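INFO batch 0412 | record 1 of 1 | parsing
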Amino acid sequence: MGLDESVLLEIREAAEIAAQGELGRWHGLGIEASDIAMEVVAKVLESQTMPDNPRAYGTTFARRLVWTRVRSTLRRGSREHAYTARQVTSESDDVVARRLGQGVTAAQVTTTLRYALGIGDQVGVRVVVTWLRLAEELGEAPTAVRVADETDPPVTRQTVAAVLKRFRSYLAATGAEVEPF
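INFO prediction complete | emitting tokens
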């Protein structure tokens, strides 16, 4: 892979600390610091280049992501809660849920889940395990809303989308062949 796992852990830790600090002012928006931190790690994995100063990169990028998410959430207002309450299923939810791809094997998923645990992505592992369980029960890809509601503890639909995107980058980083978005 070429990316040093200890540097990825350093980036994740710095990003999570920065995200917690920024989110301290914004309670109840459903934005999780660990999700922000793992999205920062996913960006590094996507770029396949290590930043010169991992802690500064993690801190700066996490703060930017927090403010982007806060602005987006505040713009949406209460619409997200209305979607969750009505259990709306849309084509975009199905597209988000199918991001794992048809050609991915169970062995690759297992390897990738171990990789995610190794770099501290507990939220990601919980969401992906819930997604896999629901996909097996339903016989098709579950919606992000359903996965969000059934993850313990519950997460937002946006967290599910971010986790599935991140998980695809992990799949690619561990050698699985995934289709481009």
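INFO post-check: The chain has a mean pLDDT of 75.
INFO record closed
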